[in-house]
Write a structure and sequence with these properties.
Elements (H helix, E strand, L loop, with lengths): L1 E14 L2 E10 L2 E7 L5 E5 L3 H11 L3 E10 L2 E10 L2 H12 L6 E3 L5 H8 L7 E9 L1 E2 L2 E2 L5 E6 L4 E2 L9 E8 L13 E8 L4 E5 L11 E3 L3 H14 L4 E4 L2 H16 L13 E5 L2 E5 L4 E4 H8 L7 H9 L11 H7 L1 H36 L3 H4 L4 H15 L12 H9 L5 E2 L9 E5 L3 H8 L7 E2 L9 E3 L6 E3 L5 H22 L3 H26 L8 H24 L2 E7 L2 E6 L5
Parallel strand pairs: 3-11, 13-17, 15-16, 17-20
Antiparallel strand pairs: 1-2, 1-8, 2-3, 4-6, 4-7, 5-6, 8-11, 8-12, 9-10, 13-14, 14-15, 18-19, 21-26, 22-27, 23-25, 24-25, 26-27
Length: about 600
Amino acid sequence: MQENVVILDIDYVTFDEKPVIRLFSKQGDKNVILLDDTFEPYLYVVSDEIDKCINEIHENLEDVRAERIVKKDFQIEKEFIKVTFKHPQELAKNRDTLRDLEGVMQIREFDIPFYRRYLMDRDVIPMTEVTAIGEEVESFLNLDSKKQDVKIIKLTDKLRRASEYPQKFRIISFDLEVRNPHGMPNSEDDEIIMIGVASNFGINQVISTKTNSADRDDFVNQVGSEKEMIEEFVRIIKENNVDIIVGYNSDNFDFPYLKDRAKILGVDLDIGMDGSDVKYIRRGYANAASFKGLIHVDLYLVMRRYMTLERYTLERVYYELFGEEKIDVPGERIWEFWDNGGEELDNLFDYSLDDVVSTLKIAEQTLPLNLELTRIIGQPLFDVSRMATGQQAEWFLVKQAYFDGEVVPNKQGANFLDRANAEDNEGGYVREPETGLHENLVQFDFRSLYPSLIISKNISPDVMVLGDVENEDDYNISPEHGLKFKKSPQGFIPSVIDKILQERFRLKREMKESQDETEKKSLNVQQQAIKRLANTMYGIYGFPRFRWYSFECAKAITSWGRQYIKSSIKKAEEFGFYTIYADTDGFYAKYQKEKK
């Protein structure tokens, strides 16, 4: 059979001692789970005695396949040993043994998670449509097509790209209100009194055990108990086949609290596509609430990367985005509003609904960018929404390295010397603003200064040369530090940034030429996503824990940046423009022949 589906999420399970990839997908309003048992984990070995090392690997490790393969290492073709394992757990269990073998100089790409490797190698892009060819099965392990109302397809061919995006996704926001007379809510004692839900498909309500004045009846859904309230919330998600559920600080509060109360009351939060409950997965420094096939996005984490604010409360973020004050109730008084009833209870209902409506509006404003980043990076939205911008850029580079035939470098580790060096980088040029009110200013701004420098000066570890060289004309030499970068061939990272900047300029041209407002909006989101990635590439060089960390490259970029901005300021002054403020990639000036 052949079906077109949209990929939402991915994991893997074990069957007959083999890993089986599960791709949670949608076909219209139908849930589809694709199964693929044809993919195996692998890593690369660096050795100066390939044949001898292959024999040593086979003698010391069982159930592995070691083979000679040619790949690129910083643009230079060389031979590696590709070691393929039967199961990801076998790779994790044996990598230290492999590393300690006499003929092994280094192992590479041993720390790429299995599901992420699958997405890259098979060129499967989450949140886009694919054509799946396979055999429909009634059940698989804990999956039952009738019980869970899901179509299960065992793939017989590789997935193929289908129609163009953007896709439309069913999004719901939610928020809990808790009766907390003792301050910070305690899930063992303090009941949930309201669950607000808002959606982009028509549901906007507050589920509660109370109701009050008649003019709140249009959005208050009264139920008999806290248990029924949670059950109604689960029913809404399941019956409306939600794709994305969003909250605000829902990783840290709403889902953990809901899970605790559901357990106490004997309610199953079985809203995963496979009927599973919420699970907590380590992402970065925190635990993230996850459901199989239902993508949970915590907008609090997204907004901390989306904008720079002193505080990231829902009220502050909403005002910053929309210029409107949202309804607010002091957290320590929620229980009083609940107990007092009357007008205060009405206000609490309004506040609960406003919370989820505001959260949904923020999601509709910011999710398009995150969806586009998901497609560009090629990793699940659940992961991308929790990645720092540097991590997003790194995974994009890892993906590009695969398509370029590059074996990616290992993480160097954030040791003390690396951190000290990173802190020692002078950074961009800044001229403090001149106090006072200034009129008739002109602004000068470099377009994508750091990405452009990386491309034009070919700043990349694979083309950097330390020490003396015979012909300096063949090198770009940085000011201040004299760091040298070959003019050719083009380095790996400059080549990637060059490609994506050209793609961004193409999108901007199409956006300018388009007469269709919907198309313009879509193109703008795409070019903004690319801009964010390109501007983040510089940071890859400056952070010791990233694979392409290079203190020398980071220093070279900023030194050239300072040179260009200073020379531009000097040139402007020759024409009578006096600079009153400068920062990294631009400055403000006013026309003034002589400074007073």
